[in-house]
Design goal:
The protein has 275 residues and is an alpha+beta fold. It contains four helices and twelve strands. Strand 8 and strand 9 form a beta hairpin.
């Protein structure tokens, strides 16, 4: 997914200082795994938040340095997917999301025209090979609303209130929201969280039509409208499968400003990281 901007001499000097000095921020540790009773390996992430900026990395089981990083910068309205192994990054922003969706729509239309000349058996084989590209586009992005459940939870030693995320009358996700208050749970410290929800809403809307596999991410756009800090996110698919992401630790911590920057010399990749 995508981003970059320019600035004057003063901004460049400030950026140079920030690149070497750690600023006060928030460190979040979380796990993500199939929700019980399903079984599957849990993945662990470390997320750094510095006001309107957020960076996340997968913690590798072998202790090796992570090779991929997700960076969100709300001021530029952009997400970078940084691959240090390939020394590339993919940029996502509302404009490029629309472009990617339009390109896939045109490709799908061309494929459908070509498939008409094949036998039913050949069409089935080609559709199986192409996977998601051979499927018809999905409908418009759904509208979501929150409903309080009147139940409390507790994660990372912090109390939270459970909410259902509804699509119509169907529950598609569950959130457990902690109240904003003392550090580190201040609106200023965690400004990137609701901003990310708004970003996902703007970028996922065109992409969901062409990439139905992204649909489980759609409820996350509701983060822009919630008044609280999500400590639990449990998503549910139409097949009944659920993924559960839980905050296990959250604390104030120095944050290296370089985490929110593109490494020097990395090339931009134009291949969307969707399967």
């Amino acid at each position: 997914m995508r981003v970059t901007r320019k600035a004057g001499l003063a901004a460049l000097l400030a950026a140079a200082l920030c690149a070497t000095v750690a600023s006060a921020g928030v460190r979040v540790e979380l796990t993500s795994a199939p929700a019980p009773p399903a079984k599957g390996k849990a993945q662990r992430y470390v997320v750094w938040i510095d006001g309107p900026r957020l960076a996340a990395q997968l913690t590798r089981r072998d202790g090796a340095p992570p090779t991929r990083r997700i960076v969100f910068r709300s001021a530029e309205d952009v997400v970078w997917l940084v691959d240090s192994k390939r020394q590339t990054y993919y940029q996502l922003d509302p404009e490029t999301a629309q472009q990617a969706a339009s390109q896939v729509a045109g490709l799908r239309q061309g494929l459908e025209s070509g498939l008409e000349s094949l036998s039913p058996e050949q069409r089935a084989a080609v559709r199986d090979l192409l996977g998601e590209l051979a499927k018809p586009p999905a409908g418009p992005a759904p509208e979501y609303r929150l409903r309080e459940r009147g139940e409390l939870g507790r994660y990372a030693e912090i109390a939270c209130a459970r909410h259902d995320v509804l699509e119509g009358e169907r529950t598609v996700a569950e959130l457990c929201l902690a109240d904003y208050g003392k550090p580190p749970l201040t609106r200023e410290n965690l400004a990137a969280v609701p901003a990310l929800g708004g970003f996902l809403q703007r970028t996922l809307e065109p992409l969901l039509r062409e990439f139905p596999s992204l649909r489980p991410l759609a409820p996350l756009s509701s983060l822009s409208r919630v008044d609280g800090v999500p400590l639990l996110v449990r998503s549910a698919s139409e097949k009944g499968e659920s993924q559960e992401t839980v905050v296990t630790s959250i604390s104030e911590s120095p944050v290296d400003a370089a985490l929110f920057e593109l490494p020097q010399g990395f090339a931009r990749s134009w291949i969307p990281p969707f399967r």
